Amino acid sequence: MKIGVVGTKGGWSTERLADTVGEIAGERLLIAIDEVRLDLPSGRALCNGVNLMDLDALIIKKIGSRYSPDLLDRLEILRYVAERGVPVFSSPLSILRVLDRLSCTITLQLAGIPMPPTTITESIDHALDAVREYGEAVFKPLYTSKARGMFVLRDGPEARKAVEEYKAENPIMYIQKTIDLQDSDLGLAFLGGEYLTTYARCKTNGAWNTTTESGGKYAPFDPPAEVIELARKAQSLFDLDFTCVDVALTDEGPFVFEVSAFGGFRGLLEARNIDAARLYAEYVLKKVDK
Predict the structure, then answer these.
(1) pTM listed for this prediction
(2) 99-114+180-280 has which fold?
(3) What class has domain 118-177?
(4) How many Cα neighbours within 13 Å face the side chain of 127?
């Protein structure tokens, strides 16, 4: 059986998934999307001598080393492959809905999922009003992961200059009230819509966020049933085959930050000793083999 893994060469989770799929399916096929040629007259999608249209399935692990709007166009190539009959996990359309932070947020908000107070604006004055109302706010680029490009801002005489500089690179500003994370937040993992387990990302220093790039460490955590059900509802809105829902437990109750299309493998392994790559590979083979 030929199953390709779409990912970034050298990436830890990509290589792990490609190795596992190769071991189980009998052939290792790692597809770097930036090396694909989509030829619309013939309908072929070629990568290093492989026509993706001839594969039994594709698993999308990563489509770029950094989040950017360019990834949306890469997903369109994979959408073409999927709609021509190749099973793709997760669906490119599902990933499109979570890749853009604003698209994900709007879907969650329309479904009544509790999130931190958030402002979306292109106006510097409105952005400053939000900072003033929130007391302290996090500015988040629409395409990012692991807190890259984010910064925390308090109201004060230097706030306008900081917002002006930020807006020069981020015309649409996503501004979220700072939430007391109580030194950790959670990743709740789901496979095929079924709950797997939860890990925590814990601060180990004075960083404002818990990401591993800021020194955060993974730890096991068992959330109450109502938090699991909240995360289950959040991920069900997107129909992803594998996902992690980022949740913060606060004095005001649980808040969902986002639903991720790509994360979770390392957290599950380090905190729970769960090999998500193997579980995902076995899940896909079972789906394809039906």
Answers:
(1) 0.93
(2) D-amino Acid Aminotransferase; Chain A, domain 1 (3.30.470)
(3) alpha beta
(4) 26
